[in-house]
Design goal:
By secondary structure, the chain is mainly beta. It has helices spanning 34-38, 77-86, 150-155, 163-166, and strands spanning 3-11, 20-32, 44-51, 54-61, 67-74, 91-101, 104-111, 119-124, 138-141. Helix content is 15%, strand content 44%.
Amino acid sequence: MGIEIERKYLLASDAWRAQVERSEPIAQGYLVAMAAIAAGHAASSVRVRISGAQAWLNIKSATLGIQRQEYEYPIPLDDARHMLDTLADGVLEKVRHHVMVDGAHFEIDEFGGANQGLVVAEIELEAADATHPVPAWLGAEVSDQPRYYNVNLIDRPYSTWSPAEREGKENA
């Protein structure tokens, strides 16, 4: 069984940009998304993702928190494009930047479109209680706030959030 343990953070500054090792554009859409999950009709999200000439189908459990079941399978690029065009409720676009800090790999997603202005850092961990570097550019943790989950950004994009929500305040 695939388990993903991931923490998600806002960014306190742009200082991370000087440490970017590589970046790639990503387009992704959801075939089973939050509306079905919220209605109790789905126990998972099903995502199609394209990055460059590669594509994947990803299935992730619809649970809150830093630890979730996750399965990812490569699929033909043409199939992925067709699924995004015909089956997805919308397409989320972002640029993923890869940053290494003291041996830890941070993925920093800079969103576009209706989510322009949202930038979050994610780090995958070996265990839920594992420690990791905390560079000065890392801001508030938002791992337990569902509005930051990619699956939710299609139905409720960052551009519609209140100022308090944009600051990561949990009860906004």
